[in-house]
DNA sequence: TTGTAAGCGTTATCAT
DNA sequence: ATGATAACGCTTACAA
């Protein structure tokens, strides 16, 4: 690996002149600057980032902690993040939760985003600092230099249920995601509260325990069928479970939406390709990522303080699985 | 940021003792070792990776260059890569083509993988070295310390066409991907050569110019319909175009597979959810990534030389869009 | 305009 | 067993 020393030797100047020349500083004659640049290029010299970062404190790199490569739901979020990062002239590295400590602790990054449930709150709270603001997308977390950018599940669900009631639906079932997750709780509460307000009681036998997987949706619907407890509409805590629900109903020749409506949450790519197309709540993934990164840069480059991020608003996509 | 110096001061020892203690070296008494470890923990000390890497040459980090966050086809590949990297005790960073130079040039990584057409061959060839082996997944590239792990498109297509001929198909159409891409060329050649061998001439009016997008598949099928040139089977250079083709046929009430069969390539997630389920060629994505990373580690940790990677074999998934 | 030298946070060599 | 000290490759005051 060719170092600044090698370039200096070949150019017959001191290393500081090389540094100055290459960093476009004024204190070097145009003539030598040219020569140095040329020699550097011809020697294929690139400054060692680590050595540089050891000196200057800014690295112009931010990290995204992410490891759920199974769920392609996330990739539009990442795209949004990436576009914003590039636009700000920074570099993005994505690393899995296994590696995040390595990057969080050591001044290699100027800021971070977290989209990985495997990372504990404690880790985040212990890593965050004035020199390392963190934006989290997968939880709500309070603290100095920490910013949460999450979807407003509760409100989206309220909007949905209100509209369903207007359409005349009264008998609801709910297929839950993993019980203790914030997403699931907010989505469920949104539904329940709205029903209650409208004088519709939600009884617990219409609550089915899922875990966000297609399979758990399938099994929940099977249960409805066996127990002859088919509602007018089944609201699923996410699309994957809705897909499972639909599959089970289809197998029993229960028509959608004539016999029962099915509604998901997330608006994954599949939702619009299924037969029938899935009515769901669309979280604007690209904008979500973009906004999260924007928040980070408002701190990083604008040095804004006391930002309170807005929640991301999700919207209903009426399609064919509902009337 | 607390440094080794701070720990040394607080523990009343020299920095070398701290370093030795924390790195589990023998030349430090058990007693002081314990004290130092304790103090380090209580001070929340983590060694600065960059400073360390400046000294020792191994970073135990590899990079994946990737930026097509639009095509979720890729994510299982990344998962395979990530699992292998973690299994070897390394860290993975994923960075987009914009940033790759920064990491390729500066000794921050021990090795790299490339899955990004935006990276030029020249860049790869100029960055590769004994200290930085590179595995490419998206092209075939020759050179010292460069290894290509690609899918055997040609063979898969030969297998497919041979079986189709056995099934009695004789009238083929082909919807191409972006013309000059290796994937497209190999897939097309595989089809054409096999047909020729079996005495079936492939005429150019049955070749439709697509670009791997659903839309281009849709338009190609529209063209077939308008020109009343519907074959027995249309082979698409990827699944997305097959989806477009199917959509167009459906709109014209052309039945699949009764009137025409449609076959894709890739086996994206959608393929198995479409109605009818798409017959396609499945590239084992997880294994592909896993294998590519494995090659890298055979060089990195086993110091193997002169490895000639096998091509990844793809397999036909007979489903409902073909007879 | 140019060069010298200190320092960033480590590890490693060599005295002690 | 412990501690100075050089070195990694760079930036940056400061001196020349």
UniProtKB/TrEMBL annotation, chains A, B:
Keyword Transcription: yes
Keywords: DNA-binding, Transcription, Transcription regulation
InterPro entries linked: HTH_LacI, LacI/GalR-like_sensor, Lambda_DNA-bd_dom_sf, Peripla_BP_I
SUPFAM superfamilies for this protein: lambda repressor-like DNA-binding domains, Periplasmic binding protein-like I
GO MF assignments: DNA-binding transcription factor activity; transcription cis-regulatory region binding
Source organism, top-level taxon: Bacteria
Tagged with keyword Transcription: yes
Annotated HTH lacI-type domain residues: 2-56
Protein name (Swiss-Prot/TrEMBL): LacI family transcriptional regulator
Gene3D superfamilies listed in its UniProt record: 3.40.50.2300, lambda repressor-like DNA-binding domains
């Amino acid at each position: 690996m060719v170092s600044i020393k090698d370039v200096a030797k070949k150019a017959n100047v001191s290393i500081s002149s090389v540094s100055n020349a290459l960093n476009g500083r004024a204190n070097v004659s145009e003539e030598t600057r040219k020569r140095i640049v040329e020699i550097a290029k011809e020697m294929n010299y690139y400054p060692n980032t680590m050595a540089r970062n050891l000196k200057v404190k800014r690295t112009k790199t931010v990290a995204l902690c992410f490891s759920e490569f199974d769920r392609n739901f996330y990739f539009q979020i990442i795209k949004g993040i990436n576009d914003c990062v590039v636009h700000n002239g920074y570099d993005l590295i994505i690393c899995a939760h296994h590696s995040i400590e390595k990057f969080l602790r050591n001044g290699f990054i100027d800021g971070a985003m977290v989209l990985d449930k495997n990372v504990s709150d404690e880790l985040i709270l212990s890593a965050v600092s004035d020199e390392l603001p963190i934006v989290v997308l997968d939880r709500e977390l309070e603290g100095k230099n920490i910013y949460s950018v999450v979807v407003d599940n509760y409100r989206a669900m309220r909007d949905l249920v209100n509209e369903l009631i207007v359409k005349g639906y009264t008998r609801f079932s709910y297929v839950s995601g993993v019980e203790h997750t914030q997403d699931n709780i907010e989505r469920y509460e949104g539904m329940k509260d709205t029903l209650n307000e409208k004088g519709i009681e939600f009884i617990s036998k219409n609550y089915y325990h899922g875990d966000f997987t297609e399979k758990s949706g399938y099994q929940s619907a099977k249960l409805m069928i066996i127990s002859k407890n088919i509602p007018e509409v089944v609201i699923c805590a996410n699309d994957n479970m809705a897909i499972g629900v639909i599959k089970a109903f289809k197998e029993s020749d229960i028509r959608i939406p004539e016999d029962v409506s099915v509604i998901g949450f997330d608006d994954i790519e599949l939702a619009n390709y299924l037969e029938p197309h899935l009515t769901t709540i669309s979280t604007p993934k690209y904008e979500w990522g973009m906004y999260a990164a924007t928040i980070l840069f408002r701190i990083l480059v604008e040095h804004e303080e006391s930002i309170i991020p807005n929640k991301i608003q999700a919207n209903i996509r009426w399609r064919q699985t509902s009337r």
